[in-house]
């Protein structure tokens, strides 16, 4: 299973130093961009992606928790973002147009579904996306309780992908850690987003975080 580190949860005073070490551990970097409206919280930004792009050749995944994702796409592409993930309800009415816009710029596109949403909400364009991110917590804040009902959605996505010969990856965002790893793997997850409970909360020493995470991931 692949790993994507949620940089919202890291010590932002040591970004450059730590990314050099994290590059050998992670597959992707998960960048939460929040506008204070879709969710009440604020997090990282397009400028943050610009700053870390020269530090890594890993996939940079921008998770847009914003009311108007269309306003961010061109800036994200210019900043060097590889993958843009948009919440399903914010794609309503413009899904095919925005997916095409991102694809035309030779970037990957993903859709994010909240715990109460299901495959039917996104089935019309699942053949077009590169990733489906399943939220196992409500969007907006780190450290929330794992919502077990999302496991069924993961299993259904895996079955749907196989039945329809599709190729999107299934990413999980929220409470991915040693306690949930086995269930998430069994359900059919491809990528885990590791944040505070699954990585950065282990220690102030980034080398120790890597060692601790490797124990349950392996």
Automatic annotation (TrEMBL):
GO molecular function per UniProt: D-ribulose-phosphate 3-epimerase activity; metal ion binding
GO BP: carbohydrate metabolic process
Keywords linked to the UniProt accession: Isomerase, Metal-binding
Pfam family of the protein (one): Ribul_P_3_epim
Signal peptide (from-to): none
SUPFAM superfamilies found in the cross-reference section: Ribulose-phoshate binding barrel (SSF51366)
EC number assigned by the record: 5.1.3.1
Keyword Zinc-finger in record: no
Residues in coiled coil: none
Domain of life according to the entry: Bacteria
NCBIfam families per UniProt: PRK05581.1-4 (NF004076), PRK09722.1 (NF007266)
Protein name: Ribulose-phosphate 3-epimerase
